[in-house]
Amino acid sequence: MLNEILLTIAALQGRALAQSCPSLSASYPAPSVASGYEARLVATGLTKPRGIIFDNKNNLLVVERGVGVTSFTVSGTGSCVSLQNKKTVVGDNTLNHGIEVSDDGKTLYASSMESVLKYEYDSNGQSVKGDGKVIVSGMTTEDTVTRTLLLSKKKKNTLLVSRGSDENIDLSTVDINNGQSQIRIFDPSKSDVDYEQGTTLAWGLRNAVGVAENPKDGGVWSAENNADNIERDGFEIHENNPAEELNYHGIASDADNPLMNRNYGYPLCYGVWNVSEIPSAGTLQVGQQFAIAEANATTQDAFCRNDREAPRLVFQPHTSPLDLKFDSKGENLYVSLHGSWNREDPVGYSVSVIKFGSDGQPTEGSTSTSALTPILGNSNTTACPENCFRPAGLAWDRNGRLYMTSDSTGEIYVITKSDGKALDASAPSASAAPSKGYSVAGVVIAALTTVFAYFL
Question: Where does the record place the Pyrroloquinoline quinone-dependent pyranose dehydrogenase beta-propeller domain (predicted)?
């Protein structure tokens, strides 16, 4: 009799788990997940999903290129997440990457290559009222198309907008008034401000797609996608140089910020990754900057070292960091690496984490080549970029789970600690159960009660 009871319990447990944890499968090999973490595919069939964010009702908002902004309601516990009730919030096929939402859930911001738009948003109905209002304009470029948005949590009415270069090596950006390869600050309550009228936080950034504010101290960080096909003194060095960069811009809300308006090197100076492949490297070290002037580039290295702001950390070239998200204590910075497109041996295609210390800075030094710890990646990068996922946007939900979009495959993943525990255990609602959805434990307990009632 006891064996029958145990067999029945096992069957009901399996059925409960299957019902409460919907399973989606991808067309490529299962991802590689680091020990101590879980990752689950929770949405498929999207159109090039890029930036994502959760509103104050825990609805997931997604920028789909060629579509606009769509939304999902979220249900489930742990990693057993279900995205439901998809609807179009903004039908504008020019929106392509940036997205932000105010803390009160009443204002939605989104970006196209040309403009930043503001919408009157209702988080209860996941809808906007009327058309979007242009608040920043004049950003069109021939090359980079993403315009990353960041609403400061430390200073009200402060919107940071990152804009890239007009070509791979855009020499016109040596002029700060060019308005490209920069992060500028805007007051989102104003309308139709030309990008070049914004306050310059940083320039000399080829394409700083990832931008984040550390909740601990308000420090602003950016992840720079560096130039391709670099040469130095007539030699091609682009396979392993220049490095992708993590740059620090100080505290934007600080009127005395010493890093305000600093130049980070582009298009004259680039971060070192592999010293041995740089001609006449001299005393150059990983993390320093080197010059690529057409003649006697080595004589310009001193200029790059003394007159340009060096990166705080460097990453392997061609990994293409696209998004940055701190946890709620500012102890971990998560990075989505979109991956290479023109490297002989593909690299990137993962989500990694950088440890930060109590001083608001990375624990690794600027010469480190191991600051990134991968937690989710493709198990077979040799098939990339054609047959693998490519991480793009990152977002936290109220339960401390991290979501990742893959634009190449039209998917969304959720990342947690093992057993579905919150990745950000200090998030305000990380320990609270979601308001909707199945609870695996609840279903199993109910099943056990039924079984024992029957046999007793």
Answer: 31-417
* CA distance linking residue 26 with residue 42, whole number of Å: 10
Q: Which phi and psi angles does 355 have, rounded to 5°?
A: -80, 135
SS3 415: strand
3 state SS of 414:
strand
Provide CATH code, domain 22-437. 2.120.10.30
Residue 235 DSSP code? E
Phi-psi region of 425 (alpha: psi -120 to 50; beta: other; left: phi over 0): alpha
Which pLDDT band, with edges at 50, 70 and 90, does 20 fall under? low
Q: Give 138's DSSP letter.
A: -
Domain boundaries, the chain: 1-21+440-456, 22-437
CA distance 77 to 435: 10
Q: What is the pTM of this model?
A: 0.91
Cα gap 119→61, rounded to integer Å: 13
Element (H, E) at 12: helix 2-20
Task: Note the pLDDT tens digit of each residue in 392-437.
Answer: 999 999 999 999 999 999 999 999 999 999 999 998 877 554 434 4
